[in-house]
Design brief:
The protein is globular and about 60 Å long. It contains 13 helices and 13 strands. By secondary structure, the protein is of the alpha/beta class. The termini are far apart. α1 crosses α3 and α5 (about 145-160) packs parallel to α6 (about 180-200). The strands form two sheets. Strands 4, 5, 6, 7, 8, 9, 10, 11, 12 and 13 form a ten-stranded mixed β-sheet that branches. The protein has a domain at about 115-365: Alpha-Beta Barrel (TIM Barrel).
Length: about 400
């Protein structure tokens, strides 16, 4: 069996648009007719340019290869152009292609992917959700309202979720780490207080940021929210400096989590060595794929750290996350996004039930992908999957972070 044909589907989720502006789904077909789907979570170039990168990576390193040879293909891509160091765009392309290879292997052997990477360690995986507005919540008011956030949190906990994530501390900017405004600290405290009062001890609070703070600013903010016992403090400083993140971890009594912007074990290993974080959040469509992230999980296990795969993408990456989570001993939880489009693309094959995900037992990634639906929603805009703002934060009028992508009408 050899990898033969590549097609790349770029689909744009309709309203409400949670999960980003577009999802890049490579489809690989073997010479024996087996089809596998993956997802590339890479957004530093636009989807047209990214399609060219994916095509190049496939043609150079994977075309004509046996899909079993994951390690060989990874080393080819990782070494491409005399690099052997993390390249976000190349590894983002390879990650989605690698996930498709596992889907192929599982289908060819009539086994779920988790059975091929260590077997089922966990019969169910704890899920968490970001707090999205309820139908009665106006936008953009929701993003700055602690009371609305508390209502959303209670609704999610009543559905069975035991952990909810929110990020009220202002937007991320191209300017790097900054000191939070006093209004950012006050808003963050208000969110933690209102949500904790709403859910009590029924759920963990997951405090998100996006690497937007200076080291000192992250410590100030983290110490302000300590009384509400968040389970984690996500990416409090820019992710490229684990030494500074470690200073935050030492100064704040909240576990630090990071990883959605990192790729390969080469970038995760310094995080563990420095003590920067005890919870790793790889995005499998960026981190090197399923096998490389399995190695990252093994590194984490040696440091007594846990895994919480990140998801701001589509259901194919989510499926990969779930198979990884099913197979490792140090899974904490996995992020989930529940929209009708996510559900329909995989025809309801994987769901969150009472706050937990049951890993699929069907072959491959465990779903029948609805290509027609995906192709019926092409991406026609010019923005990137996620974008940072250029303007600095506001120290006078307050700041609002309107989620990961604008709401579609």
């Amino acid at each position: 069996m050899k990898l033969q044909d590549l097609d790349i589907i770029v689909t744009s989720p309709p309203a409400p648009g949670w999960g980003g502006r577009y999802w890049i789904i490579p489809k690989i077909t073997t010479d024996t007719g087996v089809v596998g789907y993956g997802e590339c979570y890479a957004s530093s170039v636009g989807p047209a340019a990214m399609k060219a990168v994916i095509t190049d990576v496939f043609a150079r390193h994977m075309l004509g290869e046996n899909p079993e040879n994951i390690e060989l293909m990874f080393r080819r891509a990782y070494s491409s152009g005399f690099t052997q160091r993390p390249d976000l765009t190349v590894m983002g392309a390879f990650s989605g292609l690698e996930i498709a290879c596992w889907d192929i292997l599982g289908k060819d052997r009539d086994r779920p992917v988790h059975a091929l990477i260590g077997g089922r360690m966990n019969d169910r995986v704890r899920a968490y959700t970001y707090l999205y507005p309820q139908k009665t919540h106006p936008l953009p008011d929701f993003w700055a309202s602690a009371d609305m956030a508390a209502e959303s949190a209670l609704a999610m906990v009543d559905k069975g979720y035991t952990a909810v994530k929110f990020d009220p501390a202002g937007p991320y900017t191209i300017r790097g780490g900054h000191m939070p405004a006093m209004s950012d600290i006050a808003t963050s405290v208000a969110f933690c207080k209102a949500i904790r009062e709403a859910v009590g001890d029924r759920a963990d609070l997951l405090f998100g940021t996006h690497g937007q703070f200076s080291t000192a600013g992250a410590i100030r903010l983290g110490q302000a929210i300590e009384p509400y016992s968040p389970l984690w403090y996500e990416e409090p400083v820019p992710p490229d400096n684990p030494g500074e993140m470690a200073k935050v971890a030492q100064a704040v009594r909240i576990p630090v989590a990071t990883g959605e912007r990192l790729t390969t074990k080469a970038e995760f290993a310094p995080v563990l060595r420095s003590g920067a974080a005890t919870i790793l959040q790889p995005a499998l469509g960026r981190s090197g794929g399923i096998w490389e992230t399995r190695k990252i999980a093994a590194l984490a296990e040696a440091y007594n750290a846990q895994m919480a795969p990140h998801l701001y993408a589509g259901p194919v990456e989510w499926a990969a996350n779930v198979h990884l989570a099913a197979s490792i001993p140090n899974i904490l939880m996995a992020e989930s996004i529940e929209t009708p489009f996510h559900h329909a693309l995989i025809k309801g094959a994987i769901t969150v039930d009472d706050g937990y995900i049951t890993p699929p037992s069907a072959p491959g990634l465990g779903f029948d992908f609805d290509e027609d639906l995906a192709r019926a929603h092409p991406y026609t805009d010019d923005g990137l999957h996620l974008q940072m703002q250029e303007d600095p934060i506001n120290y006078v009028g307050g700041n609002i972070f309107a989620g990961g992508a604008p709401v579609k009408g």
